[in-house]
């Protein structure tokens, strides 16, 4: 059967946008829409967006976003990056955006509608293009608002934190490369991931398309590209930055690494702010999950209107201060964060000043294989050493809870069926008799050994409700090649574990199709036709204290530290 492929081409330019062809230093012309630069308006600050997903598509809804920015007195400029949709040049993502960012800002400043001041805004890849412009260090760039993104994302290599220890290969990210980064258009298809070697699923797609994705080939070949041909953004001239973080974003760990790294640098720390919401990568909200067709903003225009307030509001407020100068910097809380299931909080620092670290130890591992309640999460370390064995079977992989982690909260799946599998370890706490508020990083340390020369460890922290359903709070993964303590960064969160609920920690050896299955050998997992099964052993006790480290607020805390009220972003 022939693989079904749908080619996605550019949507029409909106009537209220003026499209230009902006020349880069090498002569390539990039398609660029300008909103709000009519003859009746004088020179104004500009908000620039550079993205690869068709600037005119319903998916990015910039015609709707531009209405809000222009009503506030900004010119909005939205550009297809090099090699995508209406723009010329080579199609190769996650590199080469530094010079194009500089040249586009330079073009903006030379237009009669520009007052010479530029900010940048946007999600994911169009957060990366903001950091690329920071690397370019154009003097007109005065503020950025990167949302659900990172300076160090490498799709197909790692999602959680590209700057940390080795991780299982992010198949979901490689799949993205194969769909988006082939040529100017994008391609909608469903790869047959049952094929072995697994690379054959994508060879079939590229044969059907008649072209390859250079980005995908580089990922499979393990060939890294330098993201910046200027200084790393951490080392560039600081500009005011508003990090817009999603607690359920699949780039949460990577984004929070940017925040914590910049916080250690005085120049950046002085000008960085954060808004952290209980959203995923595609801006679905915890409090509205799961969505219905009438509340799904990617399908319903009324639902989209409801999302746009929270989507644009913090950026508009930030730009009013740092682009227009009509507000005071001290009017913006340093940190505004949502406590999941509760609401908005403010703080001068993150984690909040009254947050404290605590540890729960993994105990009674002999009960951890099989259905919940499994082993135990306890505040007291066990007196005796103990262990439990579980298997990794490449012919019976642990299914990913969500096939698309970019929109995890769209369905907000119950993970109880996964936790009940006999190849997944689970440890649970006692039911809480009072709310437990998580506010900061979550980290697990598990001592694991394997019969294989390489193995993967996937750790998920779940909220186990009284009705038995289990839903994700945070997650992380690591690839190891030797026995020992495996430290797993699970990201940051603001989340209330409600009275009567329990924490459940799961440990598994696969997560498919979100991640490429381990070969169980020294063979390339993309190329192996016979991945090997293995046995893993997790140890607990005084000699190997496997544990979960939480950051929590004291019971009497309201999550504020005196910097402001509990009102959310406008």
Name its key features.
alpha/beta, 11 helices, 10-stranded mixed β-sheet, about 20% helix, about 575 residues, single chain
Uncertain stretches: 562-570
Helix content: 10-25%
Percent in strands: 25-35%
Which word captures the global form? Answer: globular
Please provide a written account of the structure.
The model is unreliable at 562-570 (pLDDT under 50). The chain has 570 residues and is α/β, with parallel strands linked by helices. The chain has helices at 62-71, 97-109, 125-136, 171-180, 199-209, 214-220, 252-263, 266-269, 301-324, 408-411, 416-419; strands at 6-8, 17-23, 29-35, 44-51, 75-80, 114-123, 141-147, 186-188, 241-246, 272-277, 335-339, 343-347, 356-363, 375-378, 386-392, 425-428, 436-450, 455-464, 470-480, 484-497, 502-508, 534-540, 547-552. The strands form three sheets. Strands 13, 14, 15, 16, 17, 18, 19, 20, 21, 22 and 23 form an eleven-stranded mixed sheet that branches. A ten-stranded mixed sheet has the order 2-3-5-4-6-7-9-10-11-12, sandwiched between helices.
């Amino acid at each position: 059967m022939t693989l079904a492929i749908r080619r996605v081409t550019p949507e029409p330019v909106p009537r209220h946008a003026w499209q230009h062809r902006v020349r880069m230093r090498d002569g390539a012309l990039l398609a660029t829409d300008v909103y709000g630069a009519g003859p009746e308006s004088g020179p104004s600050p500009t908000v620039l967006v550079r993205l690869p997903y068709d600037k005119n598509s319903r998916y990015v809804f910039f015609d709707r976003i531009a209405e809000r920015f222009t009503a506030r007195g900004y010119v909005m400029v939205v550009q297809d990056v090099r090699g995508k949709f209406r723009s010329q040049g080579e199609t190769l993502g996650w590199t080469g955006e530094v010079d194009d960012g500089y040249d586009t800002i330079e073009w903006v400043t030379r237009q009669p509608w520009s007052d010479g001041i530029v900010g940048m805004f946007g999600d994911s890849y169009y957060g990366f293009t903001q950091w690329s412009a920071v690397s370019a260090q154009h003097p007109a760039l005065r503020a950025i608002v990167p949302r659900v993104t990172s300076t160090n994302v490498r799709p197909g290599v790692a999602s959680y934190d590209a700057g940390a220890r080795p991780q299982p290969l992010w198949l979901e990210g490689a799949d993205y490369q194969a769909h988006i980064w082939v040529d100017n258009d994008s391609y909608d298809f469903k790869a047959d991931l049952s094929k072995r070697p697994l690379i054959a699923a994508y060879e079939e797609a590229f044969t059907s398309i008649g072209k390859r994705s250079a980005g995908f080939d580089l990922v499979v070949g393990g060939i890294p590209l330098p993201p910046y041909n200027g200084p790393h953004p951490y080392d560039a001239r600081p500009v005011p930055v508003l990090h817009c973080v999603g607690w359920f974003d699949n780039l949460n760990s990577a984004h929070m690494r940017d925040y914590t790294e910049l916080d250690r640098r005085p120049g950046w720390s002085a000008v960085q702010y954060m808004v952290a919401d209980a959203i995923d990568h595609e801006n679905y909200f915890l409090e509205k999950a799961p969505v219905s067709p009438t509340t799904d903003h990617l399908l319903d225009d009324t639902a989209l209107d409801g999302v746009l307030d929270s989507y644009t509001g913090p950026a508009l407020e930030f730009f009013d201060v740092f682009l227009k100068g009509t507000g005071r910097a001290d009017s913006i809380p340093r940190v505004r964060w949502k406590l999941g299931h509760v609401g908005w909080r403010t703080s001068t620092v993150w984690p909040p000043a009254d947050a404290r670290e605590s540890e729960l130890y993994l105990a009674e591992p002999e009960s951890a294989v099989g259905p919940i309640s499994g082993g135990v999460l306890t505040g007291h370390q066990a007196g005796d050493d103990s262990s439990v064995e579980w298997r990794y079977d490449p012919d019976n992989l642990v299914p990913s809870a969500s096939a698309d982690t970019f929109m995890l909260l769209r369905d907000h799946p119950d993970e109880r069926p996964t936790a009940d599998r006999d190849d997944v370890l689970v440890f649970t706490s006692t039911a809480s008799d009072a709310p437990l508020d998580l506010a900061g990083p979550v980290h697990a340390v598990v001592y694991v050994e394997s019969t294989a020369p390489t193995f993967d460890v996937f750790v998920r922290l779940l909220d186990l409700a009284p009705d038995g359903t289990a839903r994700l709070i945070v997650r992380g993964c690591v690839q190891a090649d030797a026995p020992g303590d495996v430290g797993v960064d699970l990201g940051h969160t603001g989340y209330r574990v409600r009275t009567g609920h329990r924490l459940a920690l799961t440990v598994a050896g696969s997560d498919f199709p979100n991640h490429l299955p381990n070969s169980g050998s020294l063979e390339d997992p993309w190329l192996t036709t016979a991945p090997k099964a293995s046995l893993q052993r997790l140890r607990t006790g005084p000699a190997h204290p496997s544990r979960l480290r939480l950051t929590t607020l004291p019971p009497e805390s309201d999550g504020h530290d005196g910097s402001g009220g509990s009102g959310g972003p406008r």
